[in-house]
Write a structure and sequence with these properties.
2 copies of one chain form a homodimer. The first copy, chain A, contains 7 helices and 6 strands; from the N terminus they run H-H-H-E-E-E-H-E-H-E-H-E-H. With 203 residues, chain A is α/β, with parallel strands linked by helices. The first copy, chain A, is globular, with a radius of gyration of 22 Å.
């Protein structure tokens, strides 16, 4: 007797779900079954949302954030922004938390990733060429590297540091490292404490 | 200055993704960004797979498995099945592992869930009425309760046990509980060992 399996449309859906980041084979199966059990209407609305996002949203050629217009975006076109400061982030998702902090009102540049040899991501996969083009305009006086404080983030910061040395008029800074807000010393790991000590500031 | 946020189509996609089982707000954002970065073509194919699954796949009215036909399914219509044995499972996903075990060649009945007051799932939400209708046909000599060995599975088994007592011609059995294959005694928890001892069989 032939082995019983899911109908082909369900198998195709599962194989698409498995490609999503953080979704394993078991989760993909569970999500597919959940979608099937929601009834067709709700799943069709979901598919439509996906199609709308895929067709209507572009990557801003300047900063790398999402935009519904082919040129420009809500971040780059916002007025009252300090046009002399550029904040370099790894992902477009990093822009919203920085905006919410209220501590930065300059421009952004998303690299669309970070250097990570284990994931086969090299400098040529990042939006570094677009960054150099923006710096050549000469309007920026400071570049803030707002990258992760892990190995890949450090490697990307070091690589960018060498390139940015070619723009002597541009000051290059990076985010402070230290104790997170609300965290006691008991919860901080040794590396965090070491960096908090090294970066200590006068009262 | 207005707070920057994702364009509306991206926000709509994130809110759909957040409803999926096991997907939190952070994962939903990460998956949406990943989909956006795949480029439109790949996301449109995904949406199409979702639409095909939603439009072409039905729940079999008899066993509850997925089917591409409005009546019947690959499981119910398979020949060479033992028509006297019915295996009751919680989810349609439980059918494939049982099939793969090769140890069962009877018919199936998916309840589409299990009794779980914490999740607001009561007996009336399950396919118990359809189960009773199938048993009334009188062809089944045995019902195997292949439910989870946790609190909700036990509660569902007890509830079904009372209902099935109304069919005196039907023998009701359940899956054995004990050591999993390949597991040493050191890895087994106390409850598993207790059940393995209680269910010990002659050599």
């Amino acid at each position: 007797m032939a082995q019983v399996d899911y109908p082909e449309p369900v198998r195709a859906l599962i194989s698409h779900l498995r490609q999503l980041p953080g979704i394993g084979p078991k989760s993909a199966e569970r999500i597919a079954v959940w979608l099937m059990q929601q009834g067709g209407g709700s799943t069709l609305l979901f598919a439509e949302a996906m199609q709308r996002a895929a067709s209507l949203v572009f990557e801003c050629g300047t900063c790398g954030f999402f935009s519904t217009e082919e040129h420009g975006c809500a971040v780059c076109d916002g007025n009252q922004r300090d046009s002399r400061v550029l904040c370099v982030v790894e992902q477009p998702t990093d822009i919203l938390p920085l905006e919410r902090s209220g501590a930065f009102r300059g421009h952004y540049h998303s690299l669309r990733g970070r250097i990570s040899p284990l994931d086969n991501v090299g400098p040529e996969d990042l939006r570094i060429g677009a960054l150099i083009e923006r710096l050549k305009s000469g309007v920026f006086a400071e570049v803030i590297l707002a990258l992760s404080s892990d190995v890949e983030g450090e490697a990307t910061a070091n690589y960018l540091g060498e390139i940015l040395a070619g723009f002597p008029g541009v000051e290059v800074t990076r985010l402070a490292q230290g104790l997170p807000a609300g965290g006691g010393l008991g919860n901080a790991d040794e590396l965090t404490l070491m960096r908090a000590l090294q970066g200590r500031v006068g009262l």
